[in-house]
Here is the input.
Amino acid sequence: MGHGSLRKGFLKGVGIDLCDVQRIQKMMDRWGNTFEGRVFTEREIKESHDKASSLAARWAAKEAFSKAIKTGIKDFNFADVEVCSEDSGAPSLQLHGDALRVFEAMGGGELHLSLSHEKNMAVAVVIWVG
Here is the structure.
């Protein structure tokens, strides 16, 4: 592979985000289902088992996606970017609504996601290949 390429495409963007688990826990405690329902899909809530560390990693993934495509979150809702667990356990992104429209308008491509959390911090990296 040549410089700047990954598989068949070219690197179009990289995003990374770090999220404080306690910040997410405080939002869950304060606003409960209202907060979760505005930011996360039903599938995300179910797969996270309502654990703040898993939801923080998903929050970070949504932010990392917005950074990878260089738009920020102004053009779509957080719930339009869904973090799913594959059968293998690996995380992936599924785009819906405005997030999908924005991504396709920018040329689409492949999104690669990596998540991690340790104690009070969660991190996500998104790589966009087009």
Summary: The mean pLDDT is 91. The chain has four helices and six strands. The CA atoms of residues 29 and 35 lie 9 Å apart.
